[in-house]
Design brief:
It contains 9 helices and 5 strands, in the order H-E-H-E-E-H-E-H-H-E-H-H-H-H. It has 226 residues and is of the alpha+beta class.
């Protein structure tokens, strides 16, 4: 999917862009809502818009965006206790000003959050507390699938964990990224993972927890396979 994003970003000519999964759809008035909102509030200081997702029954996915605020970063939203997927609508010129998603031989997954995290360092997003996408939401589906992704794509996960150990907004989050980095490094059988880390001492501290997380992922993927 991230390779498809690279190709799409090279071809997009519109001012804004967003990603809609193949089994999701936008409400009839979604584009009008987005365009009208952007015309009223856009400026060069923001990277785009963060809006709401709902399921096919109209139920909100996760929590609403912060009331009383007009802007937030994506990381800032989750750092404030926000939950659930949100619809991200980015300026095409902004998203193309950051490096493309890397491709790793034999793997198919790199988190789309790679670009979003980089953008968070330089821009905020306008808050639009309205639903603009209906998603085929399965509460357990993405979690169960993610365990498989950990096993199948350790290079991709190692790559994003290195970045997040540096850029994550809180010390707790950076430590969690270090735990995941250790786990993915074990999957890769990479003996140089401490030296290759941007935060060696953080990684050393995370090693026991990373080993436990690796064991848990292996256990969960065996259960799923059954």
């Amino acid at each position: 999917m991230h390779g498809a994003h690279n190709a799409a970003y090279r071809l997009i000519k519109t001012e804004l862009n967003t990603c809609i999964d193949s089994d999701d759809y936008m409400p009839d008035d979604a584009i009008e809502i987005i365009v009208d909102f952007w015309k009223q509030h856009s400026n060069k200081e923001v990277a785009g818009i963060i809006a709401l997702d709902v399921d096919f029954s109209g139920n909100l996915i996760g929590t609403r965006l912060p009331e009383g605020l007009t802007r937030t970063t994506l990381g800032g939203f989750y750092n404030r206790g926000g939950r659930g997927d949100k619809k991200l609508i980015y300026r095409t010129d902004v998203i193309n000003s950051y490096p493309e998603y890397p491709l790793f031989k034999g793997e198919k997954y790199v988190s789309l959050g790679y670009k979003y995290e980089l953008i968070d360092q330089d821009y905020e997003l306008l808050i639009l507390n309205e639903p603009v996408c209906c998603v085929n939401y399965q509460p357990d589906g993405s979690t169960m699938n993610m365990y498989r992704q950990y096993i199948r794509n350790p290079q991709g996960f190692t790559f994003i964990r290195k970045q997040s150990m540096v850029l994550a907004p809180t010390a707790k989050r950076r430590f969690m990224e270090a735990i995941h980095y250790v786990s993915s490094s074990i999957m890769l059988r990479n003996k140089r993972f401490i030296q290759e880390s941007p935060k060696p001492w953080l990684v050393i501290t995370a090693i026991p927890f990373g080993i436990l997380w690796y064991a848990y992922i292996r256990y969960k993927t065996r259960i799923i396979a059954k």
